[in-house]
Amino acid sequence: MTEDHRELRRVVADFAAREVGPHAARWDAEHRIPAAVLTALGDLGVFALGGPEEFGGIGDFTSLCIAIEELGRHDQSLGITVEAAVGLGINPVATFGTRDQQERWLPDLMAGRALAAFGLTEPEAGSDAAATRTRADLVDGRWVLNGSKQFITNSGHELTRLVTVTARTGVRDDGRPEVSTILVPAGTPGLTVEPAYAKLGWHASDTHPVTLVDVSVPAENLLGERGRGFAQFLAVLDDGRVAIAALALGCLRACRDLAAGYARERTSFGAPIGSRQGIAFQVADLDAWCRAAHLLVYSAAAMKDAAAHGERVPADAYARAAAVAKLQVTEWAVAATRVATQVFGGYGFMEEYPVARLYRDAKVLEIGEGTSEVQRMVLARGLGLLQR
């Protein structure tokens, strides 16, 4: 960590303690994150972390992971809102967009004045993204899109201005579908953001199904090269996995700190419960997981930053590092919420205590941005196992 990284951590941690922690339970109950807190994060520079300097970008990928971790300590819903806004909203436009596309969208997105969503998942196309059924036909110089997407984060927030959609645009020479990525501005006729999901956790995070019926956008809304939509998604996916691991690390730290504090204060049979090995050893495990998780997240982030500075980092090495971080840290986070809830006993089952919210929020960490099974598949293939 550089001094800039340490200063960023101090700034975001202070903001989260003042402006997020005291309100997280209310946002969870109201199923919303106010636009004001997102624009405040924009003023702080959080949405610009790791972005192109010419559009206001600051810091690096490690910086983004730090911010997500610190926000996730207080509110996992806000953490995933930021992670998706940057990793799935800004990153594809910054990486693959034309100059005109970047100039149109990046200034507001990176300033926190707008949000963008990424429409990939469908009822029959999740981890198997190549099974995309949404179609985009080029008619008289315009893309006409028809289909549906599900589980789309930041798709219906009051700040949402753009949904990037993967769609079939033809058939490749080998007979497989040609998948491309197309920018669809919010409010385009035929683009319908369906009612929000009733989710187990991440209540304040904005998540909707999206339907497209004869949605027409200009041909120049194609993002990147035609037929490279799936490859583009894979290119940004590894970064998303590391960022989700950073969010899980925030969850881990919250569980450790809450459990340790409660174990020191709560008395039973005349002594703090933390004086008993049965409790103390469980909390010690949480501390060990936090320390190991920190190394996994930030060693992977450092590989990303090293490559950005011209160092030779094999893509498969980074992919494996991202998969390990995503797999291990998210599974530790889920286990940590169970331990912390158990330490709190009956109080841990009450919504007035943050461990209950963390318990609900954690499970999806093992699912989003590639399930644990997908991460194991990546690692197994790196060992020469499994048939493709």
Low-confidence stretches: none
Q: Kindly state the mean pLDDT as a whole number?
A: 96
How many domains would you count in the coordinates?
3
Rg (CA only): 21 Å
Q: CATH topology of the largest domain, what is it called? A: Butyryl-CoA Dehydrogenase, subunit A, domain 3
Biggest beta-sheet profile = 4 strands, mixed
Helical run tally: 11
What CATH architecture label of the largest domain applies? Up-down Bundle
Shape: globular
Spatial separation of the terminal alpha carbons: 38 Å
Label the structural class.
Answer: alpha+beta
Tell me the strand order in the biggest sheet: 1-4-5-8
What proportion of the residues form beta strands (DSSP E)? 15-25%
CATH superfamily of the largest domain: Butyryl-CoA Dehydrogenase, subunit A, domain 3
Number of strands: 10
Helicity level: 40-55%
**The CATH top-level class label of the largest domain:** Mainly Alpha
The H-and-E topology, N to C, reads as HHHHHHEEEEEEEEHEEHHHH
